[in-house]
Amino acid sequence: MSAARVVATADTHVPGRARDLPPALWDAIDRADLVVHAGDWVAASVVDAVAARSRTLLACHGNNDPADVRARVPELATADVAGVRLGVVHETGAATGRERRCDDRFGALGLDVLVFGHSHIPWDTVTPGGLRLLNPGSPTDRRRQPACTFLTFTLDDGALHDVTLHALPRRTA
């Protein structure tokens, strides 16, 4: 694959936190070459909907996902995309010590980038071992964050480019 446009999301919690994904996220999914979802879908119907609109889907399950979702997507998924070894997992533990824990847990997999979720808090750091850690936040449940969010980035020629955190407008009921 040449350059790949990627959208990353996690913690969608549909229908628990919203009836559907926000329109801006659906638009990004429709334009992406690859969609990465870091778990907590909450319903298999959401897996189906995202898969139907994705050119390619790389996904895992989260701690809030029922058995039918867990049967469809693994705890950890990996892929080689445009020369980048990409992984997705839901939970990486507390923020304190995350970089070292991720090196210990995922270093042997040879990953370049790990997308994770669970906290609903956007995150972008690099571990001492060189693994880039990205959390897209949540598009439906901002918790203590200023906005609901998702990420886009490009993978090309073995490198990660143009990482952008997208803040979503507040929903009005």
Description:
This protein is of the alpha/beta class. The protein has a single domain (4-167), classed as Metallo-dependent phosphatases (Purple Acid Phosphatase, chain A, domain 2, 4-Layer Sandwich). 18% of the residues lie in helices and 32% in strands. It is built from 4 helices and 10 strands. A 5-stranded mixed sheet has the order 3-2-1-9-10, covered by helices on one side. It has a 5-stranded mixed sheet with strand order 4-5-6-8-7, with no helix packed on it.
CATH-wise, what's the superfamily?
A: Metallo-dependent phosphatases
CATH architecture: 4-Layer Sandwich
Shape: globular
Q: What's the helix-strand series?
A: EHEHEHEEHEEEEE
In the CATH scheme, the class would be: Alpha Beta
The low-pLDDT segments are none
Distance between the first and last residues' Cα? 42 Å
Strand order in space, largest sheet = 3-2-1-9-10
The residue-averaged pLDDT reads 95
Number of strands: 10
CATH topology call: Purple Acid Phosphatase, chain A, domain 2
Q: Specify the helix fraction band.
A: 10-25%
Protein structure class: alpha/beta
Percentage of residues in strands: 25-35%
How many individual domains? 1
Largest sheet: number of strands, sense, barrel closure:
5 strands, mixed
Domain Calcineurin-like phosphoesterase: 6-157
Organism: Cellulomonas biazotea
Cofactor: a divalent metal cation
Family: Belongs to the metallophosphoesterase superfamily. YfcE family.
